[in-house]
Amino acid sequence: MVNKIKRSHLIYIVSLLCLVSCSVSYKFNGASIDYSKVRSIQIADFPIRSSYVWGPMGPMFNNELKDVFANHTRLQQVKRNGDLKIEGEITQYQQRNKSVSSEGYSAQTELSMTVNVRFVNTTNHNEDFERQFTATASYETKQSLNSVQEKLVEQMVKDITDQIFNATVANW
Fold first, then answer.
1. How far lies 2's CA from each of 5, 6, 8, 9, in Å?
2. What is the pLDDT of residues 79-118, one digit of tens each?
3. Which pLDDT band holds residue 13 (cuts at 50, 70, 90)?
4. I want to staple 135 with a disulfide (CB 3.0 to 4.6 A). Which of 29, 52, 153, 156 is the partner?
């Protein structure tokens, strides 16, 4: 009986030691950042360089990009000398006919937004890149662009900022 108790205590202690010595880390936000090396991020405002523009799009994009990193990482946002640096410009915002009705008129219109991004990781320059990210959203041509533009731009901004986040710190 004493042997069984000692054995069960031994198993319990060994199991406890294994749990304490093994560290399992789950990251539900997708970020894989070594916070011992990377502590700050510098995100520049992206100017609009597109010939077709919707005024609120620039601030909407810039705020969402900063919010994504603030909400999903522990990185401190700085004005200069960041361990990670993100800059670029909104290079394209356009609409085109996506589909035509049987009467020969446009049935759906597609909006697209493209952003050029330059990313620098000062702790590992192998991860540096310059890349374009694009998102699209469609609407029925019966609707006016003014009535759907804000919602569609919000969707495209969210999509592009998620793409940028994944490309820079998620390492997928």
1. 5, 6, 10, 11
2. 999 999 999 999 999 999 887 777 777 789 999 999 999 9
3. low
4. 156
Q: In angstroms, rounded to a whole number, what is the distance separating the alpha carbons of residues 124 and 34?
A: 11
Distance CA 163, CA 114 (A): 12
> Any residues with CB less than 8 A from the CB of 159 and at least 6 apart, and which?
135
User: Which residues, at least 6 apart from 106, have a Cβ–Cβ distance to it below 8 Å?
Assistant: 97, 98, 99, 100, 141
Structure tokens at 172: 């997928």
Report the run of H or E that residue 169 belongs to, with start and end. Answer: none
C-alpha span between 13 and 25 (Å, rounded): 22
